Predict the structure.
Amino acid sequence: MASNDTAKRAGVMTDQLLADARALCPVLNVADYDPASDEADLDRLARWCIRYSPWVASDAPEGILIDISGCAHLFGGEDALARDMSARLRKFGFRSRLGIAKTIGAAWAMSRYGDGARIIVNDAETAAMLSTLPIIALRVGHDVSDRLEQVGLKTIGALIGKPRAPLAARYGTDLIKRLDQALGHMSESLSPVAEPPDYRTYRKFLEPILLLEQAQNCLVDLANPLANMLKNSASGARRFDLSLYRVDGDVKSLRIHTSTLCNEPGHIVRLFQEKLEKLNESYDAGFGIEQVVLNAFETEAVTAEQPGLDRKRPRGTEAEFHLLLDRYGNRLGFENVGRFVPNESHVPERSERLVPVTARSPETENWPEFLRRLQGGFYLGRPIALLPRPEPIVAVAEVPDGPPIRFEWRRVTHRVIRAEGPERIAPEWWGKIPKEVEPTRDYFRIEDKDGYRFWLYRQGLYERRETPSWFMHGFFA
Amino acid sequence: MSAIAIEDLKRRISALERQIAPANGLNFATGCDEIDQYLPSSGFAAGALHEIQGATYRDRAASLGVALALCARLSAEKAGPVIWCQLRDPDRLHLHAPGLTGFGIDPGRVTKIILRKEQDLLWAIEEALDCAYVAGVIGVLWSEKLYDFTASRRLALRAKESGVTAFMVRPHWANGATVADTRWRISSAKSIAPRIRRAFLPRLGKAQWRLDMTKCRGAKPCAWHVAWDHETLRFDLAAQLADRTGLPPIRSAGAFRQTG
């Protein structure tokens, strides 16, 4: 059981019976312990903290770790940052304790056991400040700290300078590790809650904006410096995130993917504009948006290209085509915008794959080359359209191995007047265990008496005494 | 109103209507002289809207084939990607990439876009027509409901501006008025190929279609019987088979026999 300050003042204590607590404080609000949703809330708050630094991790059950190296000056120094953060958290209804120190361990200790709600420790006085804190502030278990207290080691200062080997032997190496981490003798890293972007630009508003149109205008101001940063480092990104921070702590992120490495501001703006327009129908800005952040992910080096000298919209360039594909992909989903790549298989339905245009193309995806290897020529005599799966037909062949002379497909009888085949296509015997190997197919190109052309096959070979069955698979033009 | 003002208005209206020919004035030949000479732009106009429909439900594959064949002819004139737009399940038929080789189209050049709604399909086609880098767009509209005069006009204007050619494959029952430059009804026809001795059935010949031009801007409707040659990638005029029903089957003499 946990209780807030107001309840504590009324006399409610941890490990109390609920009936007793109710008697002490009749207006007590009781909620069941729900660690999953607590964690989800903490995670949401951690994501909100990305406004201060991209490197944020949630430290369940009650903490959030933020690496503010190089970020504090953006808020006017560490003190101003801490002030800003606790003020904002108070507005959300949270009581917070902040500790800023050179190591995760020290900051953790200061925020929980330090004297005051906001403690900022200089690098030089880390050890001195830590010395006064109890052992439990080292992020060790109660069992370890209790045992240390029994032998009279009550503060961290008592441990500093003590011989390490006996301590490690008696209380575990974890204690020494935590001590070293707090003092900065051992490195510690945090895994961020969201992938930190490679490049980021942001804009804060003095007065929260209420309309998404204003965010759109702001987008241009964000995309230009971001694109410049990318260009200056001769790189481009494949993914961009636009995050809208609402005053009440809600964060809305929009994401776009690009099929090629992108560092063109116009390209970024165009893709986000469509997303924003769509969002506009459902988005409620609430009390306003106070910050907009544009992030770039998955950056890679690009070879420099000579941009057009005129500022007009380029026409007939490859870049325009890539923009088109990106717009398709971001509106329809990239799984619906595909190109054909050859697949190493002789079975017709498996010989092609549709991959998203964003997929990077290895050199092997060369169709003419592939077809030459598969069949020895560019022209295969393959139909232009296939049924999603072959459909069984009733066929009559004059000789067992020959083409059918009549067949019935979808309740229509066709009389065959021309035929070519068989073209024998065997499945890959190496792909599956022998029991599951599909029967070999004998394909025929068929023309019926009206001039329609079909691709059908007989499955099962007479010489293997398999029962043959006929299937319709495709259509020629 | 003065004559000058009227002239000015006329010019502005015609500019609005984009009556001026596209700047590049590109067109592509079918390879069949009779058709090319008959068409007013001596060949198919690029940067225009062409509609292709099967004569019956069974001619769907043929209509796809003609669209691809025309696209192949276009590719000879203009490099660039081909965009194929279709709904998620277009009548339970889907494009088979190796089959594109019969039309001389490298499957790697084709971008296939699958859409859920016809509205998105028209949007996708319009956007593709706006991108001058694209060579051609094929839109499969087999369940069309929204494609009408207005929608086609939008597309035609885009096509004219950018010079991208659109091939709309429509269902056989479609008959509403659109602003398409040409409209073709395709029916499959029997192919012609010599019989190989001792073969049980004769081989397939070149694909043959009856192309029925039911609409053409600047020319009267006409019809041709053509064959598509996958080696030369061109249309050829084909002679139709004589109707021999009622005649006794020809006992082919040795002279007609081919060895094979």
Remarks:
- Chain B has five helices and twelve strands.
